[in-house]
Amino acid sequence: MSQDTTEAENNFKDWTAPLSAALGLLVVIAGIFAKLTQDEQGFRSTLVAGYVVCVIFTAWLVFFKKKNIRSWRLIGLGVLYVYTAAFFAFVGNWLTNPELPSQAATSQTVGNLVRQMDLGQSPQGWADLIQLDENWTNLATYPNAAFPASDGERGAGYDLDLLPGKWRNYVIRYPDPIQADVITADFYLPATQDIAENWIGLQVTDRNSGLQLARSANPIPLGEWTRLILDLRNKYDRYDVALTNRPVNLEVFYGVKGNSNLSATSVRVRLDRITEYKEAGFHVGTRLEQHGADHLLFDFENEHLEDWQVDSTRGKPGIIQLSSARVFRGHLALKWEVDLNSEDKSFIQFIHHGTPPTGGWIARVYLPGDTPPGTRIWANFYTLSKSGWADNPPVFLTAGEWNTLIWDTHAVDWDVASDAIVGIQIKAETGSYDGPIFVDDIQVFER
Known about the structure:
Layout: H1 3-36, H2 40-63, H3 70-96, H4 103-106, E1 113-117, E2 129-132, E3 140-142, E4 156-161, E5 167-173, E6 182-188, E7 195-205, E8 212-218, E9 225-231, E10 249-258, E11 266-277, E12 308-310, E13 319-323, E14 333-340, E15 345-352, E16 360-367, E17 376-385, E18 388-391, E19 395-396, E20 401-408, E21 420-430, E22 433-445
């Protein structure tokens, strides 16, 4: 036996076992961390990495022909056999486990739309109603409480009890985990004097602890459908994991306070069109190339309004300029000076050259917190399509925070022979407002 061979054997015995143990320990730590943070994709990736390490190390042992490591070779093969059986059992469960959508499922989505649940067709998954008192305690569950839509109606209906002068809260939980960037839901409360106040919203919670991770809630007008938006981008859990990168549980809730004198002890509310979106970039030409990792279209960081202009042909004219007074991202945003009352609207628009944006649009809108009491202002996207005016349901702006507008444009009848006009309109539903509105981070979804 040569000196070089003996030295190689000694080196092998000295550092192979510690090295493999260190690699295995790193994989185990990564897997534990991924599991604790509920990063299912990360957990699965660490298992794949561990399997690769096991295969390489065992192959090294098998093809190392020296007799004094024969026992190591047998142990390595045994571990590999056990790991292989467990690994492929896990892979089989992975392929059949509905927790995370497989590539086969998500590849059928159109553009940015991940899934839309039309509860008028079936309330499956949204049938059970949870009732709580005004302190969110004394939970009672009512299975299969959803009523199907009748002729001329939409969505699923739920009968909520009213208490004179007191709040009662209701939650509807979707049983399967979801993963999305933006979630929307349409809510309806009937026009009745029996409802004194309401607080409606949707939220996502931790799948194991039930801890609330993010929420969007507002009072909504009676007698009309209202769309609420939960934007999970730039939101994180307690482990600093982005909510867009992990599965969560989705809930909607109705809080209703009955009037002191009730003509009815219950009211039927409705829920419909729960939609999940994923962000995607959309290129519209070299002049408006995407900026940054989030594929921004209009972030106003190039110190230019990027062809946004006031639409002076309709509504009450406003003034737009760039400002650093309030920004969502970067150091500049579009500042829109408006003077509105309940009879007025104001419009800004962008003339979109080239292929129509048939995926969707999203924008952040900020209403300052010093709006007059009783003033309710809403905003939405609009266009002049081939078939005429088209827009998305209005979003009532919460003062003092950035609000999200989202518009799925798959159903818009775009005129491909001409440029598309895309704009944002603002209206004071009640009261009046004279001051700035800030718009930032306008993005276009992929076609």
